[in-house]
Amino acid sequence: MFGGKNPAYDYFPCQHQLFYRGKGSGQIWYEPVFKAITLDGREVWRRRVYRVRRGKVPGTFHFSVLDNGVTSNEFWRVLDCDDELEFCLFYYSGAASTAGLSYSGAVLGTSDGRMPGPQHTERLNAALRRAGIQPWELSYVDNSDCGGAPLDITGPVARAPAGGRGGGAAGAAPAPMPAPA
Predict the structure, then answer these.
(1) Structurally, how many domains does the chain consist of?
(2) CA distance 129 to 120
(3) How many whole angstroms separate alpha carbon 4 and alpha carbon 141?
(4) d(CA 115, CA 34)
(5) Do strands 87-96 and 70-81 pair parallel, antiparallel, or not at all (unpaired)?
(6) Model pLDDT for residues 47-73, shown as the tens digit of each residue
(7) 143 φ, ψ (degrees, to nearest 5)
């Protein structure tokens, strides 16, 4: 991911947005993998597993996740997506109603975590403005030290690896970062 609008949601370093099909007809899962900085300064990998349902309007989706005991429901829509998938720009809004929290934002996903080429700037800016977002509102994701990201699928369709782990649930246990050499 290159950037996003909501610093509380999109600011984490080294974000990887994994989407995959489930076992059922039309079933989709979303598994973001990202680094979090702990209070004592350590970097740890975190992930969540979202269930995704297609909306009635093409390009719209309903996401739900159980995160630390709180269920969040989100509505996502595709603002723009390059035909060659160099980038996809999404808008989302959501709520964790039991926590009394609502939020919204945008996510600019790219295949390599870099800003799409300058030929896409006006197109992206126009898509953001149509959603009521100014381009300068985006936070940029720090993708400078992302080696070792645990990009295996752990959600409901994953097969258990040797040792019996796998098939995780929402908010699955994080994979610790290796100690610096």
Answers:
(1) 1
(2) 14
(3) 8
(4) 18
(5) antiparallel
(6) 999 999 999 999 999 999 998 888 999
(7) -110, 30
136-157 core/surface letters (b: 16 or more CB in 10 A; e: else): eebbebebeebeebeeebbbbe
Neighbours of 122 (CB within 10 A): 9
Q: Is 41 left (phi over 0), alpha (psi -120 to 50) or beta?
A: left
Residue carrying the six token digits 């964790």: 96
Domain that holds residue 65: 3-140
| 81 part of a folded domain | yes
3-state secondary structure of 31: strand
The answer to whether residue 145 sits within a structural domain is no
Nearest one of 55, 43, 70 to 146, comparing CA atoms: 43
- Neighbouring CB atoms inside 10 A of 133's CB total 19
Residue 147 belongs to some domain of the structure: no
> Over the stretch 154-175, which tens digit does the pLDDT of each residue have?
888 765 444 443 333 333 333 3
Query: Is pTM, for the whole model, over 0.85?
Result: no
Using alpha carbons, select from 125, 145, 130, 164 the residue that is nearest to residue 34: 145
Strands 139-140, 16-21: parallel, antiparallel or unpaired by DSSP? unpaired
